[in-house]
Amino acid sequence: MRNCSFQCVYKRLDRHYGPQEWWPAETPFEVMVGAVLTQNTAWNNVEKAIDALRNAELLQPESIHAADAGMLAELIRPAGYFNVKAVRLKALVGWLMEQGGIEMLASMPIKDLRHELLSVHGIGPETADDILLYAFGHPVFVIDAYTRRMFSRLGLIDEKADYELLRRQFETELGKEAAVYNQYHALIVVQAKEVCRKKPHCDKCCLADVCRYPIND
DNA sequence: ACCCAGGGTCATA
DNA sequence: TATGACCATGGG
To answer: Are residues A125 and A157 in the same domain?
Structure first.
């Protein structure tokens, strides 16, 4: 009998939390900026940095490209690693403008775009996939620390497995549906914020429900 | 006071 | 290929 665990977990989370309408951003470029700023950082802190950038009218590629790196770092200070991330934002917009802007990227095949993104300094697999999925709507499943923790606890994956392996695993199980990947990753993040991090699962979150009962509906 | 967050790079073995 | 150090703020 075929393993339907990935779909079942999705159904439960979706039923429990409803539509998430991710990514929380106004433009594709804002998604890219947020994806870099949220690296190993709580979203709460990223919002402050993005607000600061917006107030300074620095949420467009050209203005970030022209901005002083030191000033950029000060603005994004609340997001942590601000010196590192200022350099990464610079690298991102430098590459973006080299490529001819967002429109050019949007017309690029997924595989090529993903390869290009990964060649940019400061953009690793997860950040690249955030951008591919949430800025361009490409069917790419995002694997983050929450996903590893949650699904290894469910016994569905090997927590230490290679990123690409896990991505293929999810994409194979779910089929190539960008709308599903979009909602699923959002649900994983939303639900992870309710889980006690120290114990395998707590009693009050949706994951506890997933853990407690057989997964076969 | 301690732990960690919606990672990635770089140096070393 | 596989660890470890490093980056740094803010909330629990």
So the answer is: no
Asked if A130 and A93 sit in the same domain, the reply is: yes
Shared-domain flag, residues A183 and A95 = no
pTM of the full structure: 0.94
Please classify residue A58 by burial: count the beta carbons closer than 10 Å to its beta carbon, then call 0-12 exposed, 13-18 middle and 19+ buried.
buried
Domain around A127:
28-134
| Beta strands in A63-177, from DSSP E residues, in sequence order | none
Contact A114, A136 (CB under 8 A): no
Shared domain for A126 and A36, answered yes or no, is: yes
Cα angle: A213, vertex A201, A5; to 5 degrees? 45
pLDDT in tens, A1-31: 455 689 999 998 999 899 999 999 999 999 9
Residue A120 CA and nucleotide B13 C1' are separated, in Å, by 27
Instruction: Considering any atom of strand C, list protein residues whose CB lies within 7 Å.
Output: A 40-42, 44-45, 48, 77-78, 80-85, 160
Distance from residue A11 (CA) to nucleotide B9 (C1'), in Å?
Answer: 37
Question: Cβ of A124 < 7 Å from strand B?
Answer: yes
Verify if strand B has an atom below 7 Å from the CB of A21: no
Residue A149 belongs to some domain of the structure = yes
Distance between the alpha carbon (CA) of A54 and the C1' atom of C2, Å: 41
